[in-house]
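ugh ok so i messed up the first submission bc i forgot one of the chains. this is the corrected input, ALL of the components this time, i swear. 462 residues overall. if the numbers dont match what u have on ur side tell me asap before i send this to the collaborators (the ones from the other lab, u know who)
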Amino acid sequence: MDDYLFHLTRSALFAGVSEADAAALCDSLRCRRAFYPKGSVILRRGEYVERAGLVLSGVVQAERNGADGALRIVARHGALELFGDMLTASGIRKSPVDVVAAEDTEVLFLPLSELMRDGGSVCCEARMRMRLNLLSQLSEKYWALNEQLELLRAPTLRTRLARRLLAARRTRESDSFTLPGTRETLAAELGVNRSALSRELGKMMREGLFTARRGHFVLHDVAELERLAAQ
Amino acid sequence: MDDYLFHLTRSALFAGVSEADAAALCDSLRCRRAFYPKGSVILRRGEYVERAGLVLSGVVQAERNGADGALRIVARHGALELFGDMLTASGIRKSPVDVVAAEDTEVLFLPLSELMRDGGSVCCEARMRMRLNLLSQLSEKYWALNEQLELLRAPTLRTRLARRLLAARRTRESDSFTLPGTRETLAAELGVNRSALSRELGKMMREGLFTARRGHFVLHDVAELERLAAQ
DNA sequence: TTCCTTTCGTTGCAAATGCAACAGATTTTT
DNA sequence: AAAAATCTGTTGCATTTGCAACGAAAGGAA
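and heres the new structure output, hopefully the right one now
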């Protein structure tokens, strides 16, 4: 796909940048595109990262080996999402994860340090736009992590669940939504045992707080959930 | 203190920037200095933040009201440390905390968006240096949060404690160190009850893993601690 | 359909943690 | 020094959660 520029300008990083400017900038920064067949390794644990990656198509996974040796999927990045930016930005950190292509994937690599260099008269405005977009991206990742942390700080499973559901309600803007993954996934997010999660889900449903069937949730008593979440 | 420029270049944000360049840059960016007497409010919860703050002298605290109304100190920033950067970078978020001067404090405010704008021929190199420093700062805050999260994900208090002590050992580069704050502080970091912490500390000491007296710790069996932390 | 695999809820029991109360130690204030 | 306030360890008891095992339900494949 050589029409990638159109897609590019739809990414958060290139938001507000024209197609022409995007092309000129990629050129001036010496960005490179690379194709990775499904399963191939993009980045190895322990490597230093000098360029952020923007997924043009496909999906990329960050993986890690747990203490028991079991494979843990730490993150997934789909089309137009950025990865490796935090490592590149730090400049000194080795990757704590392997990054592999979960499907056939095309990636655009961006040398962030080049982006920070003044570019003479070349797309001055677009450069600034992209720098601000980058800051915004980095900070959003920070705040997302912060929310995770608030979740885990909640004293009890009941509270965590309430917060998680209300968070989903906010982003989906509806009392009815589907959470990704299985119960096991949700349990991991909340940092608890799966059976403990099922137990608490059962209790809360019997109290009429919401209905859950597989991944689909319908909230019934938002007020009470908010009271719980406040703990 | 009008000799603040010397100090400034010792901060992480201005690392690698000469005193002269720092002065020129502050001028070009229209940075402003402000003095806050102890106890005064620098930033209110709910406000939008347009400038990052660099503490020139004194101490700044981020505070928040818990569910019960009790005051919680979320973060402290001493001399040469940066605050409000994540909020400024996001561009859209309201502050989730109040920021107040914990002592008489002088702050230098930096408009990050100005820093991202090409500056013609004015300190081109220094600008780039500072932009990279900023990225580095943001990412370090991210990774610090990430470490906190790993800590809370640990299945048991014993594991969390082992990780926390080994982390301290790494940064202090010694088997003997003092942790800031009281037991209550440490318990909060680990996300557990204080008495539970004391209990576990007692057990682990009886097993000869380390000695703890008030804030001071001496590690004795690092190998075993590492085995525990791996869980 | 039928078989097989994955997901899910349930439950009994063990382990970990929260909570509250108290006493000794330490630090700070008067 | 004396008194007051804070910090710390300890302990009994209630609650929460982890763990393991099992059967039912759901979804996919033969």
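quick check: Residues 3-150 of chain A form a domain with the Jelly Rolls fold (CATH 2.60.120.10). that seems consistent at least. Residues 147 and 167 of chain A are 9 Å apart (CA to CA).
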